[in-house]
Design brief:
Layout (H helix, E strand, L loop, with lengths): L10 E7 L3 H12 L4 E5 L16 H8 L2 H6 L3 E3 L1 E6 L5 E5 L11 E3 L2 H14 L3 E4 L1 E9 L2 E9 L6 E10 L14 E3 L5 E8 L13 E6 L2 E7 L5 E8 H5 L5 H10 L2 H6 L10 E3 L4 E3 L3 E2 L2 E3 L5 E2 L7 H23 L8 H20 L3 H7 L6 H11 L8 H24 L3 H6 L7
Parallel strand pairs: 1-2, 1-10, 2-7, 4-13, 10-19
Antiparallel strand pairs: 3-6, 4-5, 8-9, 9-10, 11-17, 12-15, 12-16, 13-14, 14-15, 17-20, 18-19
Helix pairs in contact: 1-4, 1-8, 10-12, 11-12
The protein binds flavin-adenine dinucleotide.
């Protein structure tokens, strides 16, 4: 028996393009505000996706969306912190989220995104959004400069359909359907890096509650992540300069295996483990977009901006911007029945400020003076708490105290930079092999 054709309303209050964390969040907020919402997702969930380590500041957001109970019931791996090691040296830093400022929850989750994204998408549906999977948005429709709806092709249909909307949310991730409309992408030359990753069936995780921590191994020109899951398996990825991926002679898989073999800390942790997925890669991934908004439309999550994932910031940024977009739209429609670019100005300001706070640390992570400061064996207590707060995702509304001590971290790093310049290639550089990268 053939399926009945999907019924689409000719007009809704809001169309959300993309059903990742950013899109599901925006759709949930809009539906809970009583608006009619159609979400179109190209794939059928569950689907594989990178980005598996969440941050503590994700938890209050899950609570506000009314989905935290479902996430807790799914029994994802709980993580209480992060364990940093530097390849070939005895530099380590163990971060405990309980040590943060600003009321950060003491833990977060490590999630297989196939399961987590499906759960969020179901929640959007249960909140009242009409969710359509296997539905690719081909084009956002405009009248002048105002977005007025989308042209969407449903799976198995030859002819696309049109749905009109008062507002369109672009949550299409790295595809960024609308980025050309707002002036295109701006790449970050300091972060010209690529990631290669796969899942393994097990690894040598730490004993006790720390066994759920993300493990980061920094290397002279990049870093590895090991993200433990509740079923004992692990996500293992390496981030390297994009040129190494582009100039490789063999396959991506060979490059990944060679990089693994040359990082003893990672090979040791994966002794006896079997790879359970294919090797995936994403090239050249850091960018911002010239503008995030216009009349009747807004970009959220990776569609708007993507920052090197060393601090696991992507899902938090996507969900926070999705929530802010949903609230701004609901407020504007209630007040005046339409949504203008100006209604998203506070979102853009807050979002860009948060990105800047993260970026200051991410840039530093590729520079020897910042790494030496980070790995210092006896960190200043308040500075360490401020750094932990940033690593917990506390960048949207940090307290004065937290901002002050985070600034002191950067000041300390500048002092270390001077010391490094005066002593020439010193013990840290010799031990770590790190050299300052040219932008
Ligand atoms: C190597 C690497 C490691 C990472 N590690 C982490 C991490 O540990 N923690 C973390 O928080 N983040 C991490 N991230 C970032 C994280 O993956 C993203 O920031 C996050 O998924 C963004 O969510 P989103 O909803 O904006 O986009 P996505 O999750 O990409 O969702 C976009 C959705 O839109 C759909 N779509 C695309 N085009 C269309 C269309 N035309 N019509 C309909 N649907 C469409 C796609 O199918 C997709 O499902 C990492 C990223 C990389 C590259």
């Amino acid at each position: 028996m053939s399926e009945a054709p999907t019924v689409l309303p000719p007009e809704v209050d809001a169309v959300v393009c993309g059903g990742g964390p950013g899109g599901s969040t925006a759709a949930t907020v809009l539906a809970r505000a009583g608006l009619s919402v159609a979400l179109f997702e190209r794939e059928r969930f569950p689907r594989f996706h990178v980005g598996e380590s969440l941050l503590p500041f994700n938890l209050p957001l899950l609570e506000r969306l009314g989905v935290h109970e479902k996430v807790a019931a799914a029994r994802f791996q709980v993580k209480y912190g992060a364990r940093f090691y530097h390849q070939g040296s005895d530099h380590t830093r163990f971060i405990r989220f309980a040590n943060s400022f600003d009321g950060a929850p003491p833990s977060a989750y490590q999630v297989k995104r196939a399961e987590f994204d499906l759960l969020l998408l179901h929640h959007a549906r249960e909140s009242g959004a009409a969710v359509h999977e296997g539905a690719r948005v081909e084009e956002v429709l405009f009248e002048g400069t105002r977005a007025t709806g989308v042209r969407v092709r449903l799976a198995g249909e030859a002819v696309p359909r049109e749905v009109r909307a008062k507002v369109v949310v672009d949550a299409t991730g790295r595809d960024a359907l609308l980025s050309n409309v707002v002036g295109g992408r701006v790449r970050d030359p300091w972060l010209d890096r690529s990631g290669i990753f796969a899942h393994f069936d097990r690894f040598g995780r730490a004993e006790g509650p720390e066994g759920g921590d993300i493990v980061i191994v920094t290397t002279p020109d990049g870093w590895w992540w090991l993200i433990p899951f509740a079923d004992g398996s692990v996500s293992v990825g390496v981030v390297m300069p994009s040129r190494r991926l582009k100039e490789r002679t063999g396959s991506v898989e060979e490059l990944y295996e060679a990089a693994r073999a040359s990082t003893p800390e990672v090979s040791r942790l994966l002794e006896g483990a079997t790879r359970t997925t294919q090797v995936h890669h994403i090239a050249d991934y850091s960018y911002t977009t010239a503008a995030l908004r216009g009349d009747g439309f807004v970009l959220v999550g990776d569609a708007a901006c993507f920052l090197d994932p060393v601090f696991s910031t992507g899902v938090l940024m996507a969900m926070t911007s999705g929530e802010m977009a949903g609230l701004a739209i609901a407020g504007a429609l209630r007040r005046k029945g339409r949504v203008d670019a100006a209604d998203f100005a506070p979102l853009e300001r807050l979002y860009r400020r948060a990105v800047r706070r993260f970026r200051a640390f991410v840039h530093g992570f590729y520079q020897p003076h910042v790494l030496e400061t980070f790995y210092t064996p006896a960190p200043h207590v308040e500075i360490e708490r401020a750094v932990t707060t940033v690593l917990a995702g506390g960048v949207f509304a940090p307290s004065l105290k937290s901002r002050f001590w985070a600034a002191m971290f950067h000041v300390s790093a500048q002092i270390v930079r001077l010391q490094q310049a005066m002593r020439g290639k010193g013990p840290f550089e010799r031990a770590t092999g790190i050299v300052t990268p040219a932008p």
